[in-house]
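Homework help board

Subject: predicted structure for assignment chain

Our instructor gave us this sequence and asked us to write out the predicted structure in token form, then describe one feature. I got the tokens but I'm not sure how to describe them. Can anyone check?
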Amino acid sequence: MNSQSANSYDVVIMGGALAGSATAILLLRRNPKLRVLIVEKSDKFSRRVGEATVEVSTFFLQRCLGLTHHLHQNHLVKNGLRFWFANERTQEVPDCSEIGGKYLSRVGAYLVDRAVLDQAALDRATDLGAELWRPAMVTRFDLEEGGQQRLTVARGEDSLEVSARWIVDASGVAALIARKQGWLRAHESHPTAAAWARWRGCVNWDDPKFLDKYPKWSKRCFGLRGTATNHMMGDGWWAWWIPLRGDEISIGLVFDQRFVDWGGGGTVAERLKNFLLKHPVGGELLKDAECVEGDVHFRRNLAYTCDTVAGDGFALVGDASGFMDPFYSPGLDWLAFTTYGAAQLILDERAGRSAAHGAATLNQNLRKSYRLWFDAIYLNKYEYLGEYDLMRIAVQLDIANYYMGVAIQPYFRGEVAFTEPCFSQKGALPFQWWISVYNRRLAAIARSRRRRGKLGRTNDGRRLLLGGFAFNAGTVWLLIRGTLSWIALEISEGWRTWFAATAEEKAPTRAREKEAAVGET
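My token output:
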């Protein structure tokens, strides 16, 4: 190897996918004179999980990163969320209880092919002036609070010494800084795992042949079912169904390892398909599908957090700073808050403001946001995912609260909203408390049903088709309606759990004695 003299930059970003590229775009939009280096290990982005944006991440991609034209040209417009429930009485798709929109969505979102989106963001970053080393890999780095950060980068046959005032870790689940520093923590109270793959030959929800097969069912929805993010729901698990440009579908299963046994033989793709064929939706739409080779994955213990996400000289963004759960697609929202916070921290330091103070504030806000966000939405959520009537309440309240409390912020206030991550401000704490209370109560009711053998009794023949969510009084009405349904449920059934032990509410009753360590197989 050849040793070359040091290269000096203002910012070095480890990882050129969306989190790294977004950070570069945000920096160079506001300070084009910054010397920004992106180090990306791949020569080409490999296929990644099909992903859905939601309203906050859509605003971020369009109005902060300038990717509106790319999204329209290369990805599918998303038509909300749709959920499908089953029990022993469901045989075909129309038999399943259904939650979803009656019309097309009212606020924009997309179904995205991440490899394509990542490349578009990286191209925009380099167009704005970022320097790109690709393929290249950071083999060593040393953090120096308040000083120059030093890295060694392998690029071809060369080993290059690089220095920068700032390092940004955008390495995704590799979480290079957090793992090296010992900051990464598995979320042991939420031991979820996931298997996913791409498929061809799936039945099209909106194909005339399929609609003609079920004419009464087809007329219930005035929009499109197929371009929603469809979810198959079960006891302790859910599966996504995301169409991509062309004829490929991203399908994945996420499950709580305390509730679902992922045993059995065969490849990951075979086990995934066999599992989903047991659900009427999977059995009908996936039966003739063929797996696309080279895009099959399995990962244990999805949820993790980091003790530190920023310091005077470094910042962790996107999945390198933590991950909660894929349900409701919060990953890109978290990416937006972390990249915007990192960029603001660096820009403030370049303008002469205290980086130590800024890093302390960013650390406090992001760690608080992660903890309260997770506790409100995801803690014990998998206990009642498979219950139509409980999820009917949760979907109305969760999404309405998201619209009126979170998504409304950037649309009404602009980019400044990304400096205040979810639940990080005092004014949001009463709403966080309310959300955590009803989610905890729904989990307790599901736990009681499990003990009494009453799970899934409303999972056939029921339908909730919503008019859509927007930033207006209609969404407030959905909040009221969902709350009234919750109160009615408490009176009719919830009373059984009103005096349950606190410890029981905090942990699922079927918890395994042993939880797997953070890792991937």
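Reply (TA_rk): Your tokens look well-formed. For the description, you could write something like this. The longest strand covers residues 2-14. That's the kind of observation they're looking for.
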